[in-house]
Amino acid sequence: MIFSISSNLDKANKISESSFTGLNIWERQHIEEWVRTNPEMLGEDLLVVSIEFDRFSNSNDRLDVLALDREGNLVVIELKRDSAAGYADLQAIRYAAMVSSMTVEVLIPYYVAYRKKYYAENLTDGEAKDQIVEFVESDSFSELSNKPRIILCSEGFSQEITATVLWLRESDIDISCVKITPYKIEEQILIVPKVVIPLEEAKQYLIDIKRKEEVKEQSGRKYRPKTMKILIENLLVQEGDKIFLKNGLPSHLKYEEGNRMFEAEITGKLGQSNAVRWAEDGEEYSISALAWKIFKDTHPNKKDPGGVNGNWHWVNESGKPLWEIAEEYLAKNT
Question: Can you tell me the mean pLDDT for 198-225?
Answer without folding.
Answer: 48
